[in-house]
């Protein structure tokens, strides 16, 4: 969507959707590949024709930026020093009915992680309560040296009740023991992402230390590798 004709077609589609849902609460979010205002570009405050077209479409669609939190710039060319450029290309827009009926919501612009874009999500105050997840036996548990001893300890424990009740109690206890048997791959991913986000927060504050930029580069690589391990783990888990 780099040429004006393609953008205008998209803006027409946006206006068409707005006309269809004019009396309903609705929102649209993602990468629009264009900024709205001069302060949304780190290297230039010039208002371009593309920006004017975008703002005109937003006005016709009767949309407005949702209240936001997190990163101001949502895209970067991933360079450092004088070559670094950041822009706000991703955003969340809502109409008046959304504001009226779902007013207590906001757009969260998350750290980019290994991407050049910051993910954007809509945050609601009233979330659905967590109801837990079903237990699944993971094959890699049997490779752990503690697996047999944990099973033996649980099964050798004397519990009161009928045979069926005792088996139920032991299985429930065993599930809890197995879940804590070892560190899952996604735990490592979360730890690395947290470290990466911390470094990116430092860079966002204007720190131009080459060692910090180099640390971010290496953390991006580590996160990518760990994410592939996590993906393989959940593929195996989903087949159980």
From TrEMBL:
Name of the protein in its database record: Exo_endo_phos domain-containing protein
PANTHER family (UniProt xref): BNAC02G09200D PROTEIN, OS06G0205337 PROTEIN
Matching InterPro entries: Endo/exonu/phosph_ase_sf
């Amino acid at each position: 969507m780099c040429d004006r004709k393609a953008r205008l077609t998209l803006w027409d589609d946006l206006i068409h959707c707005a006309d269809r849902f004019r009396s309903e609460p609705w929102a649209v979010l993602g990468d629009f590949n264009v900024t709205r205002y001069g302060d949304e570009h780190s290297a230039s405050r010039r208002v371009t024709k593309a920006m004017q077209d975008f703002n005109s479409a937003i006005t016709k669609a009767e949309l407005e930026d949702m209240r936001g939190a997190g990163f101001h710039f949502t895209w970067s060319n991933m360079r450092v020093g004088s070559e670094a450029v950041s822009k706000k290309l991703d955003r969340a827009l809502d109409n008046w009915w959304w504001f009226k009926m779902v007013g207590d919501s906001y757009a969260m612009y998350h750290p980019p992680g290994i991407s050049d874009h910051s993910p954007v999500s809509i945050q609601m105050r009233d979330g659905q309560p967590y109801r837990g997840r079903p237990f699944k036996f993971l094959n890699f548990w049997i490779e752990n040296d503690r697996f047999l001893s944990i099973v033996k300890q649980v099964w050798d424990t004397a519990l009161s009740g009928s045979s069926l009740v005792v088996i139920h109690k032991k299985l429930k206890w065993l599930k809890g023991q197995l879940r804590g048997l070892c560190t899952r791959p996604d735990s490592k991913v979360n730890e690395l992402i947290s470290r990466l986000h911390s470094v990116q927060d430092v860079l966002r504050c204007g720190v131009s230390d080459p060692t910090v930029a180099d640390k971010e580069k290496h953390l991006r690589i580590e996160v990518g590798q760990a994410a592939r391990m996590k993906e393989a783990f959940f593929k195996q888990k989903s087949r159980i």
